[in-house]
Amino acid sequence: MDEDGDAGREHRTGAEYARERDREDPLAPFRERFDVSDERYMDGNSLGPISDAAEDALERAVEGWRELGIRGWTEGEEPWFWYGERLGDELAPLVGADGSEVVVGNSTTVNIHTLIGTFLDRAERSSAEESSGANPRDRRGSDEPRGVLVNELDFPTDHYAIRSQLGQRRLDPDEHLHVVESRDGRTIDTEDVVAAMDEREVGIVFMPSVLYRSGQLFDLARITEEAHERGILAGFDLAHSIGVVPHELSEIGVDFAVWCGYKYLNAGPGAVAGLYVNERHFGETPALAGWWGHDKETQFELNLEFTPADDAGAWQIGTVPVFSAAPLFGSVEIVREAGIDAVREKSLDLTAYLIRLTDEVLADRGVSVGSPREPDRRGGHVALEHPEARRISEALRDRGVVVDFRPPNVIRVAPSPLYVGYEDVYRVVAAIREIIDEGVYERYETAGDVT
Ligand SMILES: *Cc1c(COP(=O)(O)O)cnc(C)c1O
Questions:
Q1: pTM attached to this predicted model
Q2: Which atom of ligand 1 is nearest to the CA of 108?
Q3: How confident is the model at residue 140 (pLDDT cuts 50, 70, 90)?
Q4: Cα dihedral 408→413→414→419 (10° resolution)
Q5: Which residues contact residue 413 at a Cβ distance below 8 angstroms, ignoring those fewer than 6 apart?
Q6: 259 Cα: distance to centroid of ligand 1 (angstroms)
Q7: How far is Cα 75 from Cα 65, in angstroms, rounded to an integer?
């Protein structure tokens, strides 16, 4: 154990050590399968790179279109009609769920809309049941509809979607969106989340698994347990953890979850998103209904009455975007071959190494670590803070180091274990040191845009 409490070995700081670690890394061969040739690609938590497997899967779908035309919906190796469910089966082990509880479809934002909408209605119904005496639990003042608990460091789209779902139910978002504040501007204290779970006001707690800026990993089990003790539903946005942190959603009893396909899952720009609904909620009516969520057996009878699928498939809406979904077959196969536990282990080790190098080399140069140092509170990326973060990020890109900048002062570095090695991390830190020491960033515009 080193002083940060990181399990595993004490990292040394020289370049030879980094090369040695790469040589003995069982996941090192996976790098060959990604097209990251001449770059140090540290942005896989925004957009993962293309892999041979993802490209092959996409090509097979294009070939299917060419050869089968409309018959591709029901024929061929992977009939498109079942893509959502089939990919749900593929992803289920990554979130620790049954295949029937997972489906791919829509975008993450749309999935937040439909699931928050669904469970707001559901929370409403259970309030009504409780106040009519169906449930003996005493909830004073429970006539008032219950809202959603989020936090102030969330990715904005989550709040936009939730506020609009509240508004559509004529609930004032300023009153019914309850926002847990951060004590340090970087992280959210679990105790503050728990303390804010007032069952008279909160029907759903919706938190990220990992905060997009600082990379803090939340305690999903504790939050879910505390929520359930109060009759509150627990949902999570796994955008920054799926594919890099294993989950046990069913075991924990999480009610619902959403995630993206294009971050650590490497399925390409605009890739289809995914969602999970615990089986105890099968049969709920989706807030945003569409024919793709209809019971598949009778979907093509084209009845005007909507009969939702009796599993998570019900939360699909319209036709699956085949070419935005196909690459996922390949990219998930790579994660499975590597093993999500091995991915997590290397990820924690790479981020620990990055933190160690930052302390050693960059701290004196005004760079500090904005991510939690405890392994069980850290996701897959590290936030490096510096007042010149924007210009340093630009200078890094011009040196072939791809990171991203998040205002006001964060450089996010995501050493994604499938294609990033120890020497890459070493080189990134060396590049930042040089950019600062030589004042390279000063050549960049102060208000330039980094996307
Ligand atoms: C990336 C991300 C999203 C993206 O949503 P889209 O609908 O795919 O644009 C949503 N929420 C979080 C927390 C994210 O990190």
A1: 0.94
A2: 7
A3: very low
A4: 150
A5: 42, 354, 381, 382, 383, 384, 403, 428
A6: 7
A7: 11
Q: Which two tokens stand for residue 272?
A: 């289809």
* CA atoms of 44 and 266, how far apart (whole Å): 8
Q: Give the residues surrounding ligand 1 with Cβ less than 6 Å away.
A: 107-109, 155, 157-158, 208, 212, 237, 239-240, 260, 273
Q: Output the pLDDT for position 6.
A: 46
Q: How far is the CA of 365 from the centre of ligand 1 (A)?
A: 33
Q: For ligand 1, atom 13, which residue shows the shortest CA distance?
A: 155
Sorting pLDDT into bands at 50, 70 and 90, what band is 9? low
Q: Cα separation of 66 and 301, whole Å?
A: 27
Q: For residue 432, which amino acid is it?
A: I
Task: Tell whether the model's pLDDT for residue 415 goes beyond 80.
Answer: yes
pLDDT category at 38 given cuts 50, 70, 90 is confident
Look-up of token digits 């995630």: 259
Look at residue 443 and tell me whether its pLDDT is greater than 70: yes
Written as six digits, the tokens of 328 are 């996922």
Cα-based distances in Å from 239 to 54, 69, 210, 215, 234: 19, 34, 8, 11, 16
What is the crossing angle of helices 322-338 and 83-95, to 10°?
A: 30
Angle between helix axes 322-338 and 52-68 (nearest 10 degrees) is: 140
Summarize the confidence of residues 327-348 as an average pLDDT.
Answer: 98
Q: Specify the range with the lowest mean pLDDT, choosing from 16-20, 37-41, 404-408.
A: 37-41
